[in-house]
Amino acid sequence: MREKQGTWDLTLCLAEFAYNNAVNRSRGKSPFDIVHDYSPCTLADLLSLPPDAQVSHPASPFAQNIHDLRAEIQRKIALNNDSYKHSTNMRRRAVSFEVSDFVMA
Description:
Structural class: mainly alpha
Number of strands: 0
Number of helices: 3
Strand content: under 5%
């Protein structure tokens, strides 16, 4: 740990990017998305090249793999969130309050 104490500034930008790109569970958006109204570009956001551009043959399967992996992860996160929602809603009970009721806040 001591040998890495002087190199914190080299990883600070990566930590900042990771924090600003992480989706907050309660807000459903990342801090970057909230401020700029779009998500920052990452390796997973590979764009299609213009038709006249030369495509690297090893890069094409890699890019397709990244796109497929991202789609699979998004699908699994959505299924996981639906599972959490379903299990939480099963234990939820409907409660209604009147104007003069005492409640603990």
